[in-house]
């Protein structure tokens, strides 16, 4: 699809939902394993209302509720915490006759799930000896072990005492990096330690969780991370919705690709500078590229006196962007999302979502896709948040906008289709609204899509005729 073509897509029967975008979606899959697939189909058909009022799916698909806010954790450590957010799935090996009668001989899966709890959350992450960073913090992660039929075999706390755990990303050695989207200092709002860090969460005896923050990766409003598998460089997004907006970072580990625990050896944190572009929202035309991208060392990664995005980066300043969120590696490039930008809030331009691609070998940054508002009527389906590559070669996008909430699929050819919609009864009688989707990810074998409802916190496993 030409990068200048404008389209309003996905009149799919999903209660009037639509996605408006411009750009070449096929670029998002170039060089990835998914690019070798067919690129996905035009979708799976219209969404069928769920008689139980939880999750509408296409015909032939079904869901299983794995975990719900307030239910007892199977470990006995407390209750399932609130605000389910970023998530990743890892293979845990074949267990054969140890399958306890479930999923006999099939691959099990570890599911690691963030909880974006701040102070006074509905259900905090329970504090657990040896897994708690700051006893005053109410955020953290929980870990579910699933058998081959997506029955929950175990559910426990992965890390506790952190705050505002939004997203993160898997490491090259199968651990989860959970990110705090906050900058609170010890003594503020009751916290006993500084916050705004990345932590490494393990989920088995070989890779246990460390409650020591990865301080060299910076103290700021973290959102997501993505590893360059070729060099071990880690890219980080900062989700700052007020001025000055966040930065896009890279972390150069002292022990690149060093394996479990190696990030604690430290490294150098740098922020991206696009010469002549102080705000990415000012770029509006998909396909626009910038060469000779510069990386400037962060003066004080711990932000002891000044938040990182306010620090002095010398002549030329630094490049900001509103609401930097999802981040993933594909082929030879890293992709990252700006969920939206609004001039009324201080951005230089308005959009309902951008996806950027950075090619480290060429030092080239390209605006790949812009979501809305290039439509006659502002519609749901804009403001993308979490994204992931699907086994079919397409992209899954979690919507974070107004109105009904969806997970949308996007094929390499630019066709947009609904995958899931939050039904009306997900909430409580007092608060029937459906929360945003988050944490979309696929099982290692590609047979199950896992996704969270943010509030009330609910984790679903969705199975059906996924195209591979």
From TrEMBL:
SUPFAM superfamilies: Thermostable phytase (3-phytase). InterPro entries: PhoX (IPR008557), TAT_signal (IPR006311). PANTHER family: MEMBRANE PROTEIN, SLR8030 PROTEIN. This is Tat pathway signal sequence domain protein. It comes from Streptomyces qinglanensis. The lineage of its organism: Bacteria, Bacillati, Actinomycetota, Actinomycetes, Kitasatosporales.
């Amino acid at each position: 699809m030409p990068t200048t073509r404008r389209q309003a897509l996905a009149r799919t029967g999903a209660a009037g939902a639509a996605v408006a975008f411009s750009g070449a979606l096929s670029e998002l899959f170039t060089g990835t394993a998914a690019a070798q697939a067919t690129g996905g189909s035009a979708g799976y058909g219209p969404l069928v209302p769920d008689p139980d009022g939880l999750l509408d799916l296409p015909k032939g698909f079904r869901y299983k509720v794995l975990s719900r806010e307030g239910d007892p954790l199977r470990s006995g450590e407390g209750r399932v915490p609130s605000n389910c957010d970023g998530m990743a799935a890892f293979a845990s090996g074949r267990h054969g006759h140890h399958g306890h009668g479930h999923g006999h001989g099939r691959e099990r899966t570890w599911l690691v799930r963030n909880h974006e709890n701040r102070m006074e959350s509905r259900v905090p992450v329970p504090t657990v000896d040896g897994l708690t960073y700051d006893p005053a913090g109410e955020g953290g992660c929980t870990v579910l072990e699933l058998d081959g039929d997506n029955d929950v075999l175990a559910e426990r706390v992965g890390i506790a005492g952190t705050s505002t755990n939004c997203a993160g990303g898997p490491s090259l050695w199968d651990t989860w990096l959970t990110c705090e989207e906050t900058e609170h200092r010890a003594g503020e709002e009751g916290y006993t330690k500084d916050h705004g860090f990345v932590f490494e969460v393990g989920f088995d005896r070989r890779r246990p969780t460390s409650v020591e923050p990865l301080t060299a990766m910076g103290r700021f409003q973290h959102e997501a991370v993505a590893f360059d598998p070729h060099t071990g460089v880690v890219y980080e997004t900062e989700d700052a919705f007020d001025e000055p907006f966040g930065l896009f970072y890279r972390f150069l580990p002292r022990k690149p690709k060093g394996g479990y625990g190696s990030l604690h050896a430290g490294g150098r944190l740098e922020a991206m500078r696009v010469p002549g572009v102080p705000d990415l929202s000012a770029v509006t035309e998909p396909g626009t590229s910038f060469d000779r991208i510069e990386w400037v060392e962060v003066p004080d990664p711990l932000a002891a006196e000044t938040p990182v995005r306010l620090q002095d980066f010398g002549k030329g300043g630094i490049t900001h962007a509103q609401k930097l969120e999802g981040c993933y590696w594909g082929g030879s490039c890293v992709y990252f999302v700006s969920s939206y930008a609004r001039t009324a809030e201080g951005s230089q331009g308005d959009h309902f979502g951008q996806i950027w691609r950075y090619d480290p070998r060429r030092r080239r940054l390209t605006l790949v896709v812009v979501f809305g508002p290039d439509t006659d009527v502002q519609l749901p389906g804009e403001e993308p948040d979490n994204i992931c590559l699907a086994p079919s070669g397409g992209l899954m996008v979690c919507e974070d906008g107004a109105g009904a909430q969806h997970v949308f699929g996007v094929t390499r050819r630019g066709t947009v289709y609904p995958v899931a919609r939050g039904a009306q009864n997900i909430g409580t009688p007092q608060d029937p609204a459906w929360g945003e989707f988050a944490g979309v990810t696929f099982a290692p074998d590609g047979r199950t899509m896992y996704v969270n409802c943010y509030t009330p916190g609910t984790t679903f496993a969705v199975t059906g005729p996924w195209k591979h």
